[in-house]
Specification:
The chain has 246 residues and is mainly α. Helix content is 73%, strand content 2%. It has 2 domains: 1-25 and 150-246, no CATH class; 33-147, no CATH class. Strands 1-2 form a two-stranded antiparallel sheet.
Length: 246
């Protein structure tokens, strides 16, 4: 049986991300059926609250609310657990810095006294709340993007920024920038997948050894991707100019 080519996982990841960008149009869950502005309001409320609350019980309650939001969004549970699990090592790494730089409460018990690194109840509580904050916010973000296609994002943003437009604030530039970003991401993912497929056929990624080798092997991916981005940007700028957008 032939072994899969090196770099196949990267190609599959890009394909999954590109498919995930288009999954919102096929979603028929309760959240997906909401009006665009209501989707924005629900997302912003949960996202802001999940980052703003301080007590541990409130953080846990917001995490549960975010998971319920993901369930109503019909976000795949396996993919959600994978996304939440991948950020845990990074959060634990930041917890080390919190143990070093965050000052301990005077008079509290010290579990691990070692020079600048000390473990106290207040520091453990800070690390736990940071972990819950991040997981709750990430759950809100992935659920929102899974249920909201590009045109809903633009429509919802237009309604939310309408009060500023009445005050003669040029909000349409913000709306156009957001629309361009969400149009470019799937195109760039598809372009990257095509380039990686070509590199796999040529065996370019399979010869990479070590961190330096992997970085060198990825250069043929980034250079054409940057060139394609510049070309698409120029074409978009010409289109905006022809339509007298100013």
């Amino acid at each position: 049986m032939q072994q899969p080519l090196a770099g196949t996982k990267l190609l599959e990841m890009l394909r999954e991300n590109a498919a995930g960008m288009n999954a919102a149009e096929k979603n028929t869950g309760p959240v997906a059926r909401m009006k665009p502005v209501l989707k924005f309001l629900v997302f912003l409320s949960l996202f802001t609250a999940s980052l703003a609350v301080r007590p541990l019980y409130a953080c846990a309650a917001l995490l549960c609310a975010s998971l319920v939001y993901a369930a109503f969004a019909k976000y795949p549970a396996k993919r959600l657990l994978g996304s939440l699990g991948r950020v845990i090592p990074l959060l634990l790494f930041f917890c080390i810095f919190q143990m070093i730089f965050y000052p301990a409460v005077p008079g509290e018990r010290v579990f691990v006294p070692y020079k600048y690194f000390t473990v106290t109840p207040s520091k453990l509580m800070l690390c736990l709340t940071t972990l819950i904050h991040t997981e709750a916010a990430l759950t809100c973000i992935v659920s929102f993007t899974y249920t909201t296609p590009e045109y809903d994002i633009v429509d919802g943003l237009s309604v939310l920024l309408k009060p500023l437009a009445l005050l003669r604030v040029p909000v349409r530039y913000t709306i156009v920038i957001v629309e361009i970003i969400f149009r470019f991401i799937p195109l760039l993912l598809d372009e990257a997948a095509s380039i990686i497929k070509t590199q796999l056929i040529r065996g370019g990624l399979g010869k990479a050894k070590g961190a330096g080798g992997r970085i060198k092997a990825m250069l043929p991916l980034f250079v054409p991707l940057i060139i394609q981005t510049i070309k698409r940007s120029e074409a978009l700028a010409d289109a905006l100019t022809e339509r007298c957008f100013s």
